Amino acid sequence: MPFGRRPTFHRHICTKVLLAEGRESPFTEHCRNFEKSYRSLQTEIQRLKDEVQEMHRDLTKHHSLINTDTMNEILERCLLIDEQIASQYSAVQTQRTVFEEKWDVTFQRVTNEQEIYEAQLHDLLQLKQENSYLTTIARQIGPYILSIAKVKERLEPRFQKPENDCIDTTVKIHEDQISCKKKSCSDRDSDSSLILPPD
């Protein structure tokens, strides 16, 4: 046969999967009808093929005489099948416009979904890139922040004394003032004792 079987096999498998999904639509109904007509034509052609092969084998190998009526019958059946195939092909072609309108809508929806999906991945990668950039900056400035914090810790005691030290200093100053007052009074009493009383 001049045509390979691979496209037919692929179509058959895809059609079986489509019909097995159980979703009814104009296209699934078309596929169901097509498979029925196609199997009928395929069976008839297979019969003709077997008969022609047998006639060819008898003619070339056995050198048998072929009945011309049999040959004419085969030709007539071939012409009839050719008409049936042409009719089936024309019927399939007439539905192209209807299906293409639905396919355009579906294709647009699928295209939109694909664009949204790719945009989602792109946005996530962009966020990942921004986060990576921020992480790099944070790692770079981290040592500087720690260094400044250590310097600040060393410098703070020079400018600010603890609260307890300030209280102790205040108490000490107050005690010194009292001590000075007592000493001043004592000195004044001693000086007055040195003055002679009047006669």
From TrEMBL:
One of its GO terms (molecular function) is Hsp70 protein binding. Residues 31-58 form a coiled coil. Keywords: Coiled coil. Gene3D superfamilies: Actin interacting protein 3, C-terminal domain (1.20.58.1540). It comes from the Eukaryota. PANTHER family: RING FINGER PROTEIN 207. This is RING finger protein 207-like isoform X3. It comes from Danio rerio (Zebrafish). The lineage of its organism: Eukaryota, Metazoa, Chordata, Craniata, Vertebrata.
